[in-house]
Amino acid sequence: MSEPLIVIGNGMAAARFVDELAKRALGRYAVAVIGEEPRLAYNRVLLSALLAEEVGFADIELKPARWWRDRGVTVRYGVRASAIDPTARTVTLASGTQLSFSRLVLATGSLPIKLGIPGMDLPGVLTFRDVNDVSSIAARKGARVVVIGGGLLGLEAAYGLAKAKAQVTVVHLMDRLMERQLDQRAAAMLKLAVEAKGVAVRLEAQTARILGKTKVEAVEFGDGSTIAADAVVVAVGIRPSTELARMSGLKVNRGIMVDDHLETSGAGIHAIGECAEHRGICYGLVEPAYEQAQLLARRLAGEDARYPGSVLATNLKVSGVNVFSAGDFLAATAGAE
Description:
Elements lengths: L2 E6 L3 H14 L3 E7 L11 H5 L5 H4 L4 H6 L3 E4 L3 E5 L4 E4 L4 E3 L2 E4 L3 E3 L12 E3 L3 H8 L5 E5 L3 H12 L3 E5 L12 H13 L2 E4 L4 E5 L6 E4 L4 E3 L2 E4 L3 E3 L2 H5 L8 E3 L10 E3 L4 E3 L7 H15 L12 E3 L8 E3 L11
Parallel strand pairs: 1-2, 1-7, 2-3, 7-19, 9-16, 10-11, 10-16, 11-12, 18-20
Antiparallel strand pairs: 4-5, 5-6, 8-17, 13-14, 14-15, 21-22
Helix pairs in contact: 1-9
């Protein structure tokens, strides 16, 4: 009889895990995937291309409904998991339905960080994390939009908005764009390339507050200056989605803590992707999530596989601006080249 295996989360890590498991142990597990978004898994990496109307939703959907059915996977989307009982081995859904599991995989992803400044609750303050965000942002065609954050997400959102004919300004707290991936010279080259795409850039700008009475009207900075805006997109980072694990008594630091087997403090309960913390690191990138998904699938298929960690590498997904960063780009550690 197949072991009941539940995956909570229906994003890129979950889809890759099910794909890898199906290749290795089809029939060994009765797999059920629980997803809070009301749609099948899609490629978040292409959200900027979706916003720029370079692709449609059909192009970013990872697997069609038939693929899941053909592998015997039950997919419940538009459903929230509200509780886990590690002792009783059950997952409770928001509807009150209880599902039993032998193995559980948490792939709950991450949540966008919002700034703790006045005006963040005004209509017109948006984030850039999912398809609903893309729809909300796309409705601002032709508007004046300030994007807070000059990292990967912020630049990709800004590019999509510029393609949609918005007047876009990226404001960034640091002295250069993508400071986690680029040195000064490379960041200066990127700034020129982004500005050539029609995006204004303002560096060393500390956002103090969002101004407006009933909706966004402007952004004010620490030096007292302002920029008029019809909308603000906040793209200052992400944090692992850990609340469900925390409420269930699993060990959580910044992320859900896992060992080299990607197992949490609960026996038979695993975590992968952006929600997981391995050896003190939460990766927040797609490739490490895929590596974790494959390794866990191998392990659940019976292999003695261990996760050693991942080498960080990132690509900027802005058409015509080819940026790739990997390793210790500042050569700050001993022995770095």
